[in-house]
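Repro:
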Amino acid sequence: MTQNTDEIWRLVEANQQPMIELSDRIWGMPELCYNEHRSCAEHTAALHEAGFRVTGNVAEIPTAVMGEAGEGGPIIAILGEYDALPGLSQEADVAEPRPLPGDGTGHGCGHNLLGTAAMLAAIAVKDYLAANNLPGRVRYYGCPAEEGGAAKGFMVREGAFDDVDIAISWHPSAFSGVMEPVSLANTRIDFTFIGRSSHAAAAPHLGRSALDAVELMNVGVNYMREHMPSDARVHYAYLDAGGVAPNVVQGRAVVRYLIRARDVLELNRLVARVRKIADGAALMTETTVSTQVISAVSNLMGNKPLEAAMQANLERLGPPPFDDADREVAKKFQATLSAEDISASWRRAGVPERDVPLCDAVIPVDAKPEKMIGSTDVGDVSWKVPTVQARGATYAIGTPGHSWQLTAQGKNAASHKGLVHVAKVMAGTAVDALLKPEVIAAAKAEHAAKMAKTPYVCPLPEGAKPALGMSL
């Protein structure tokens, strides 16, 4: 281990307790996309307390905040999140479904940990720069609405990352390692059909059913699934089915489509096909259809120099220091899972399955993970600046993402240890980049070469705004 790495790790440990407490508080106030007002206020207060120069309302998003420390030199961005999910309320540390009273919201993706570990890393880097009188700036970006709102895409579009040299982030996981830079580009589009209401028995011929149009659109998209790329995905949800009276022809209905593809170019092709199907459904039912793009994100772009720097930190540090008590708790949660849940988790990590309940090794660089791909708005940041992400082990192996089991494990001892561990990984990677100019130079060179081949085009259409106050 190098002396510099040891120093940055000690600085992480020196600041860990306030961040663990912040994580637990965020867990206890779960807030949905673009409504993270209390969570953002907590992060803002923590930034002030730590001595950052704080900017609120980043990109005119009330729940986005940025804190900066240091002077001159390269700018290192460390990205955090703090939004929750609907329907995943759960009592902590209880290995059976037991929702808490309230609106049903819960931190079923671990973003209470994500934001605070990122801030802990940023605080440690700030203190490192000051203690060693080094040039360089570290920024913590508190990013809302990752779950469906594409806030980072709007932040990129509005210039929030224009002067950043590299970006670092992470995500809670069952394993520790460098995150494979693979994700799907996606967009959320609301299709609103307008028809004509009428008495369904006395005058059905006078009605034009918007609900029929939605259902015909869904049938058309389902037939399209056979004829689209195998890694593309299309999902839908009814936002307004036209009412609950069966004796009224539904004059208005709204469906939200989430369309995913391996990159923005393929996404745009698929979106055009879905739009044609919607137009056809409107034609068949003599209704009209209008659309509103709610969000859109790019696929991730990897950066090998930064991934190598992060892997080196992981290998020097080793896995999180879980103990027997942590493993016993994890076993209780594994007992609520199927064998397939657990096997799928190992396959996603790309390593052979073993009989252990918690991560006890760093995922090697030559692992071959199974492609089970989601989406993230970190993708747009990765097109703007060289970006790297870690996977941080914080929960029992096999725990599904977006589950009550994940919510229940969001403030236990293992999650706290994982939070501190991944903060060390990110802070160490940032310090390596600050001390070794060749790391940032190589990262930028690779990024520029990729941009020269495929320039970044923001997937958000002109005029699209963050869906503030809208249900996502």
